[in-house]
Amino acid sequence: MKYQYSAGLIGYGAKGASGSDGFQGMSMYFTDFDAIFNMANIENAIENNYVLWSSAPPQTSLPLGKTYVTGDLLVDAKGDIFTIDAETFTFSPTVGKFSKVDFFEWLTDTPDGFGRYYNINNPSEGYLIDNVRMLTPNDYVTGKTIYGVPLKEFTRIEYCDISENSKNAFSLYSTAENKFVDDNQSLAIVYDVNTESFRIGNVDFLDTIRNTSLTLDASLVIHNRPHNFGLNTPDGNILTNREINPITLFNDPSFNAKPLSFYSSSSLAHKINVYWTLADFASGSGVSGDLYFSKDSSTVKVYNLLDVSEGSSIILHNVEPTGYVTFDGLKIGQRYNYHMMVKQDGWERSSDISTRISL
Length: 359
Known about the structure:
By secondary structure, the chain is mainly β. Helices cover 5% and strands 29% of the residues. The protein has three helices and 21 strands. The longest helix has 10 residues, at 39-48.
């Protein structure tokens, strides 16, 4: 059959009439142009009756003077079917589509002026998505491995050029909906050629770190590095469990320097009672405390070396978790200070200093 004469007479074949005359009628045309991105090419071809193949020489006419007729069908590169209007040299979409699977859809005229491919979400089908940017045809082959695992065993592969000419190659994961307003909801994995390492986070054009969180829902996370610190240790290193244990003492929301359970009373002459509950100073296990009690000497200008109590404290080591103690033999009208030295995992932090005047 001479396909270039389509459409011809019905019944062409051993007994059918010849289609060689190529009678004019509605036809179906296929094109390798994209109906969205190559709209101008298609409309120009319709207006001038050019063929619809990008590989054809420019201004190649339809065979034997054939022309486009209103009602002709056009199938573009994605399998979408359109109807041609030969009077206005345009084409319009139909509900038809050739059987063809699309993994991505194209979004044009984004707020930033960029075109964007986004993955089609089809709950009924599972897709293996390979986002690959190849430098040469040999950069992405199944023979290569990552950690000894063949690339074909990965469910998602995203290859970025991390050469010196592409220092900002990155993968962006975002739940943002509104430009600028939701910028801090994006999380980027960026390769930095200066440090030859990957960075995960969100930094704006002023190099300011946006408040973006990364949560790892994993039963085990291993950070492979020596567990030591020095003067030259870069900021932002991940702490180990051993290093993070004292945080309860040095994080003010976790450490209470003056809990309500740490107080004193003086109802009898020459005596002061001090009460405490160690668990109210710091959370967690292994909390202990030393109670310090001393005569207030903030107004003393001359020290009597024969009066040892003038410059020293009474220290009660490893007090019980909850309790009280009575200090007797005190001078009436004298101001006395007390505080708790809280200890946990080898670290110490002092409570606020409180004052009581002896009756």
